[in-house]
Amino acid sequence: MTDIELVKGNESIAMGAIEAGCRFYFGYPITPQNDIPEYMSRHLPKCGGVFIQAESEIASINMLMGAGATGARAMTSSSSPGISLKQEGISYMCGSQIPGVIVNMSRSGPGLGGISPSQGDYFQATRGGGHGDYRTIVLAPSSVQENYDLTMHAFDLADKYRNPVIILGDALLGNIKEPLRRHKYIPKTFEKNWILTGAQGRSPRRLKSLYLSEGELTEHNWMLHRNYQEMTKEILYETQWMDDAKLVVVAFGSVARIIKTSVSMAREQGMAVGLFRPITLYPFPYKQLLDISETIHHFMAVELNTGQMVEDVKLSVGHRKNRVDFYGRPPGSIPSPDELFEEIQKVYCLP
Amino acid sequence: MEAVFKRPESLTDIPTHFCPGCHHGIIHRLVAECIDEFGIREKIIGVASVGCSVFLYDYFLIDVLEAPHGRAPAVATGVKRANPNAFVFTYQGDGDLAAIGTSEIIHAANRGEKLTVIFVNNTVFGMTGGQMAPTTLPDQETTTTPYGRDVETAGFPIRMAEIMERLDGTKFVARTAVNTPKNIIKSKKILRRAFEVQLNNEGFAFVEFLSSCPTNWKMNAQKANQRIQDVMIPYFPLNIFKGALN
Ligand SMILES: Cc1ncc(C[n+]2csc(CCOP(=O)(O)OP(=O)(O)O)c2C)c(N)n1
Q1: Are A33 and A105 within 8 A, CB to CB?
Q2: Most exposed: A111, B24, B195, B224, by fewest CB within 10 Å?
Q3: DSSP state letters, A272-310
Q4: In which element (H, E) is residue A185 found?
C-alpha cells in the first residue's frame, strides 16, 4: 500500500473513506463530485458495504443520519446546491449528536451558479449552515494526498465528538490528479454507548433533538457548546516562511495551493512574506494567528469569494496595531500564481 | 387472579398527551401488542416523525430515532441498511408522509426497503393546530380552508395506499380503521401481517390507519368515529390492496 498512484481528487476522498471503514454511502449526483458516488458504487459492494443513489440530497443526509445512529461509519457527498438541501438534516444530526461525514466539493453560486471552483460556502460550512446554534467540524484539504488523509481523519473526529464533520473542497480539488500514497488506516476505538441497536438487555435509547420541558433545551445546548469548545484541541494549520515574515498571507484549500507559488515568487524577490493555511476552518485557528500577531502585524486574507474567511482572520488579529488586507473575487476563473503575486505586491509595497 | 387485559409490555406506564378520542393511542397499543406477540422488543429501532406522534420515544420501551418532518422513510432506510437484523418501523402522520415527505415514502417503497410503515391519516395537521392536510376531504373545513377545501384551488385528497399499491417495490399495502371494535380486531390482523412481511424479510409493508382528530374536527369522540364511517371510508376505502393476510 505504499506505492504512489496517480489519483483524481474526488476518488482520493472515496478511497480514504473506505480505508477508514466507511461502509455506507448515500448520495445524489451533482457536478463536480460525481467521481465519489461512482467510485463508491463500484467499491462498496466488494467490501460488504452499501451504496444507495438516493432520490435527493435531503434523502441522502437523512439516510446518513439513520446509518450513523446505529454506529456505522457512513458518508454523503455533494456540491453546493445539494449541500444547501442537506442543512436541515445536518442540524438534526448535531442536535441529536449523530456522527457522519459530509463532503462538499463546492462549486460557484448563488443559485445554480456554475461548476467552477469556489470558496463561497465558507460561511455556510463554518457557521452551522442550518437552523439553530450549532457547529460542525470543517476540514479543508488542499491536495489529493490531503483529501485522502483528512477524510480518514474526519471519520475519527466524527466518532470522537459525536458530531458531523464536513470536508470542504471545491471543483479544483475534486478534479486534479496528483500522486497519492495510500497508507493504512489505524483503527481507533470510540465509546459507542449511545448507538441504537435494539434495547437488548438494557434500557431503551433515544436519539432526538426535541426538548420541551423547562430548562432542558438550554442544558442540552450548553452541553453541545462545551463539546464545540473541546474541538479546539483539533485545530490544524500549516505555516511556511514565517520566521522573518513581515506580511502573512492567510489562505485555505485550493487558493492556498496556488498562492504558495505566489509567496515563493515573493520570497525570490526578497519580500518577507509568510503563508498561514488553516486546515480546520472550524474550529478556526484564532489563537494561533493571535500568537503570530505578537511579532507580525500585517495579514492578508486571500479567498475565491468576496470576503468570508477574512472575517475570521479579523476576529483573530483585527485589533488596532494589526492590519488585515483582503484579496478575493467571485468565482468564475481560477486566479493564477502571477495574479496573486501581483496582489501580494500591491499590499506589501504599502508602508 | 389472572389478568385478562393489561398494558402491553412494550408500552411505558405514563399517560399519553393525546386528546380524548384521538386514535393515536389505539394505534400505539396495536403496535405494542404486535411487538410483544412477536417478541421483538429488543431488536426494534423505531423511527418517529414530526406530528402528534413525535413523542413515540416516551411511550414505547424501545430504541427510537427522531426524524425530521417527512424524512422518516429515508432515516429508516439508513438504519435498516446499516442494521439489517433490526426490526425498523416508521410511524407518520398524513402531513408528514403525504405532504412534506412524499418523495421519501415513494422512493423507500420503490426500493423495496425492508421496513414497516405505519401511516396515520386523520385528514388534518393535528400538531400544528388543524390545518389542511393532503388528505383533507373536499369541502372539509380546517384552519387553512375556512370555507371548506376547494378542490379547484387546493387539490384533491391523496389516497396514499392506492399509490403504494402501484409501486413494484411494495409487498403489503392495506388501509384500515380503528373506529369500531370490529375494525380494531381487523386492524390488528393487518398490522401483524405488516410486521411479518419485514420479519420474513419479504419487503416493504405499508398500513394506512384512518384516524380521528376530535379536537381539530371540532366534534366529540363518538361523532368523530361516526365521521370515519360515514365520510372517510367512502373516500378512503378499507382494503388490503396488495398481499394477503395468510
Ligand atoms: C420542516 C418543518 N415544517 C413544518 C413543521 C411543522 N409541523 C410540525 S407537525 C406538522 C404536521 C403534522 O401533521 P401530521 O403529519 O398529519 O400529524 P398529526 O399531528 O396530525 O398526527 C407540521 C407542519 C416542522 N416541524 N418542520
Answers
A1: yes
A2: A111
A3: -EEEEEESEEES--HHHHHHHTTT--EEEEEESSSSSHH
A4: none
Q: Could you tell me the pLDDT band of residue A263, with boundaries at 50, 70 and 90?
A: very high
Beta bridge partners of A121: none
Fold (topology level) of A4-198+207-233: Rossmann fold (3.40.50)
Ligand 1 pocket test, pick from B50, B52, B140, B158 with the greatest ligand atom count within 8 Å of Cβ, gives B50
Q: Is B178 helix (H, G, I), strand (E, B) or coil?
A: coil
Contact B44 A69 (CB under 8 A): no
Does B246 score more than 80 pLDDT? no
Predicted TM-score (pTM) above 0.95: yes
Q: Is B66 in the pocket of ligand 1 (CB under 6 A)?
A: no
Tens digit of each residue's pLDDT (9 = 90 or more) over A98-139: 999 999 999 999 999 999 999 999 999 999 999 999 999 999
In chain B, whose CA is at the least distance from the CA of A98?
Answer: B65
Domain residue spans in chain A?
Answer: 4-198+207-233, 236-348
**Residue range A67-91: average pLDDT?**
98
Cell numbers representing residue B218 in the block: 371540532
What chain B holds in terms of domains, given with CATH numbers, is 24-242 (3.40.50.970)
**Contact of A112 with A80, CB cutoff 8 Å:** no
Inter-chain touch B107–A59, beta carbons under 8 Å: yes
Class of CATH domain A236-348:
alpha beta
Contact B86 A197 (CB under 8 A): yes
Cis peptide preceding A179, ω within 30 of 0: no
Index of the ligand 1 atom closest to the CA of residue A88: 1
Q: Do domains A4-198+207-233 and A236-348 have the same CATH topology?
A: yes
Proportion of chain B in helix, strand, coil states, percent, rounded to 5: 40, 20, 40
